[in-house]
Amino acid sequence: MAEQSSSSSTAAPAVTEKSDAEVEELLDRMLTRLALCDDSRLQNLLSKLLPLSISSLSSPSPSVRNKVIEILGHVNKRVKHQPDIGLPLSELWKLYMETQSTPMVKNFCIVYIEMAFERSNLEEKETMAPILVANISKLPSQHQEIILRITVKVFGDCHSTQISDEAAAKYRVMCGSPDSEIFLEFCLHSVLYQLPSQSGGCPPGLSVSQSNRVRGKDQLKSDVLLIRKLGILNVVEAMELAPEVVYPLYMAACVDGQEAVVKRGEELIKKKASGVNLDDANLISRLFVLFNGSAELERIAPESRVIPGNPALRVRLMSVFCRSITAANSFPSTLQCIFGCIYGSGTTSRLKQMGMEFTVWVFKHARIDQLKLMGPVILNGIVKSLDNYSASESDAIARDTKSFAYQAIGLLAQRMPQLFKDKVDMAVRLFDALKSEAQFLLLIIQDATNSLAVAYKGAPASVLKDLEALLLINSQVEQSEVRFCAVRWATSLFEMQHCPSRFICMLGAADSKLDVRLNFLKWKIPEPPSSTGEQLFPVDQTLPSLERCYPFQPASHFPKRLATHPPHCHGHEGGTKLVITEMALEGLFPGKGQRGAADDCNNLQYPKLGDMLDYIVSRMPSLLDSNEMREAKLLFPSKTYVAMITFLLKCFEADVELYRRGDRLVESWPSVEKMCSLLEHAMAYEGSVELHSNASKALITVGSHFPEMIASRYATKISWLKQLLSHMDIETRESVARLLGIASGALSISALPDLIGELISPVAGSQKLRFETQHGLLCALGYVAADCMKRTHVTSESLLQATVKCLVDVVNCETATIASVAMEALGHIGLRVPLPPLHDSSSGAVLTVLHEKLSKLLSGDDIKSIQKIVISLGHISVNESSSLDLNIILDLISSLCRSKVEDILFASGEALSFLWGGVPVTADVILKTNYTSLSMSSNFLMVDVSASLSRHSSMEPETNEGYRAMVRSAITRKLFDDLLYSSKKEERCAGTVWLLSLTMYCGQHPSIQQLLPDIQEAFTHLLGEQNELTQELASQGLSIVYEFGDASMKKSLVNALVGTLTGSGKRKRAVKLVEDSEVFQEGSIGESASGGKLSTYKELCSLANEMGQPDLIYKFMDLANYQASLNSKRGAAFGFSKIAKQAGDALQPHLRLLIPRLVRYQYDPDKNVQDAMAHIWKSLVADSKRTIDEHLDIIIDDLLAQCGSRLWRSREASCLALADIIQGRKFDQVLSVEYMHNLAEVLVLGEGLKTRGMAN
User: Is Repeat included in the keywords of this UniProt record (predicted)?
Assistant: First the structure.
């Protein structure tokens, strides 16, 4: 072989040096020699002859060329049928690559190189193939095809199963060069190539010229194609190219017709291309060519037009595009791809689905400049596809296609709202789809519909008007999903001041339960007016026609009457209805129930009351009818009415506040008249208890601002109000009774005795009344009589006597419930005038007569009755001047000091506040508003009491100040001498509630101001109580004292609380222990040996004596004192956190003292202590990390010191805190020289304590 190479390398120069005649003579001798050579020696001869002959073609002499042609013809004949005769492959390739070789020489070389490869052994093929493709980019196009086909044949022959490292290294040499690009492109075409079908044509993914380039002149067989593709995959893998370069080739392999190729392609995708960058622009461009084929076909020759890939490849490519942002921004390829999937001639249902999915991806990730180009076109395509969708296409893929189409519309609406806002068509389409589409699509369409709402923000007025009609109709249809979207649009599209949308929310509020929804079906769609029924929403000029909203629907499409039978209910529909209700209420009352939204809600702009009422009346004109309301049926569902009334009250209060600033309340009277008419209709028999309660309370609210108008309006409706006094609902009865009292103020002087007589007569009569009737009459009697007492010039003594006598008799003779109502009525009268003595009683005074009965009632177990009685005693005391009666009231209230019922204690505190004087309410507030009680209307622990009560003016009794001072002295002695420092925890709790009530409700009174130091001391003492209510109320009391106190008191209070938290406070006032004094909470220290309880002082003494260690009682008391100190710290934390918000800079000097202890207390074993200290930490510290960093030295000093404390809980808390603070810090921050020794001691001590098992 070396000889052949040497001879051939010298032959060409030798020939070029000879003349044409000499060359011709040489060729003639070679021809003779060739003719005489036998086959066994022919291969050696050809190794010299063939290169020499072909190189001679460079001669311009025709005779030389003819001689060469004659030689080559003879060679062809000799070797044609003898494939075992080899040809000089390497020599021919060298000749081909010589720079001086002429085109003719190269052409003949390439022919015989191809022939030589077919006759070479595998080793030579494997060696030569990398050499051939190494400079492929420098070859002519026709020669490239031949070389590449030769190389791919070698892949099939040599590398179909594996490739050696040596061969792989040769191929890697061309990585990154132009040769590599040409090589890989041909490999891709070879993998894409498939055997032609019977119909012929070009394989998908290729052009005719590319197909011919791969196939060559010979027709490929299936097995040959298989091994070549496997060889290509192996060689490409061995070249270790970037994933982006080989990804299209692997993708093509994954969808090949041969299973082995598919398997190998899948393997390589996972192994070599899992980290491919799908946002590589070059890669995505190549993939789009595979998917779409050639773009701009009119500019490309037919044979060069690339056909789109087969459906399997396109589906595979779509899964890639749906993960590539670059693919979403590749206009126009993106648009061509989508339309090819949806409308392409060879598309499939799977491709349609993937096309819609890709559309969703494009609408989500495309840049806005790209989206402007594609969005309108794609939207038209989606609409067209939805119109062409057949109901018979019910397979999963078709369903997914439709769901992606609706998703795409929703996304496009969010990103390009301008495409939708000028027309209502898309809104109509989606709402119709919610009614007609299958159940599986409804949630998708819901999302799309809700997204579309944003697009109509700022739409033209005509479009918004059409939307109002559309939403009103769809808010009442059968399908819950449609109603959901209608309400969602109403809440999101329109502002709070938009009346039609709020009306839709009111309708949606009645959508919470199935039975309510079914009853509501009869109010869905407007019906033509008739003599027997009324149209719920009359169609007028302001409401657009349905034909205008649905321009593509025939008139016959719209229903004239609804079926009243229950619809089919889907499994999730009940939950949807609940969401509808919640959303509707959120649309009417944003942020309701959310503390964080309170401030935002205060700034809401409600519609004008008149505008809102006018719209409601336009939908339901019969609201203004003045017939007897109790005989009528409801015009709306009860829940709609409830939401409507609540919202109208918001509008009313906003208007009142606005008009009050300009002193123009009279202007709102027409609107108030309409509202009263609506509220009267709400009192119809069909209404729910909740509705009647809300409506009657709303009338009182209106009356509190317009008392004259309400009084004059309902003075003519006394008989209607008297009917409602026997209502089943207690709140409704009470509100109606209050309304009757207001209305009585407009009656003539002569009519008042008759009205009171009508109320007294049934109560005093012998006939047994229903409870509801008796309750309503007694309530009304109290309010009416109280209002009469206000008009002193018309009130006769006999009328007052008769009223009081009737009520006293009821208290003495009836049960606790009725007696408490009668006492409440007496209290209301007592707010106006002192109760007169009874003429027919020996004792005279009302309270003297009732003392025994009231004592019995207060010792009973009817909590609500006791509350009413106690509060009524407070009301009676307001104008009472008799020292005897005032003492009776105080004794009755004080008898409740051991009650364990919190509500009773709060009511008693309110009564004491009235008895003390200076409460922040007036008689008119109590009698003519929806006022309940001070303790019910103010939340002790959650709100700013002073702010909640500041809107009321105070009520100062017009009685002898000497009597009042005496009563205040008695109350003070009772609290400070008996209750607050009592050995009974119940009495201490009662004293705390009552003292807090006096401080809150009468805090501005001079007498309370004088007692503030004593009150502060008492509350500070009570911080250590085990009872959580006592402790929390004491901390609340301290914050109120701080608010009311002067500068010196505020400073003293801050110092006291700091001392309590740091353990440096002064000793608390000693409390004398008796036998049954509770020292520990039951179960906190276990049981005695006999199984008895260990909680009281007596039980602890008995245990100490039984153990023969009487001095053990002192250890028990020491333990109790320590527990009390922990409780004090916890209680102080609650008070401190509230004071910290007001104290501001006054706390700064104490921070260095507080912060180390607060850090440690947050790791206390007691969860309650942890929570309390975390609460105060948040109040004091704005930036926790920064604060700890700034005070790190003193914190670590404190923790190291407490690690050696005698108290187990201090040691544990310090170690936990130390471990937490050290973690994550640098060595030099926490382990400096001064800390090393102390920390080592702590570690040794901690290990020793652990070893000895010390638990305390």
Answer: yes
